[in-house]
Amino acid sequence: MIGGEAATAVEDLISGVRQAANFMQQFHSYLESEKQWKALVEFILLHLPDYHDPPNGGGCLDQLLSLSMVWASCLFLGCSYNKALLDKVMEMAGGMKVEDLPQFVTRSELMKKHQS
């Protein structure tokens, strides 16, 4: 049995993990698969220190959530956005690995196949 300061430290750690999980859960959409949600959580947590809102607000967290949705929409739904935005979110994703992503064919690719 752990006692004293060690027990308090473990309890504080568990409490912090629960608070983080509860914080993240508020952003979970019922439309997201478990795979999408796990990828979004990883993306958000990776950048949360850089995008946390200052005490007076400022919308940094909203910007991070928006960027995470753009990233996930590209990967999981095949959406496209302007090049600068796509470059930004793909750079932010860096070395993140998401397995078994769907493969998409763009309209332009389909048109090229039919013209050949």
UniProtKB/TrEMBL annotation:
Residue intervals of the XRN2-binding (XTBD) domain: 24-116
InterPro entries, alphabetized: XTBD
Xref: PROSITE patterns: XTBD
Highest taxon, organism lineage: Eukaryota
Sequence similarity: Belongs to the CARF family.
The protein, known as: XRN2-binding (XTBD) domain-containing protein
Organism: Piliocolobus tephrosceles (Ugandan red Colobus)
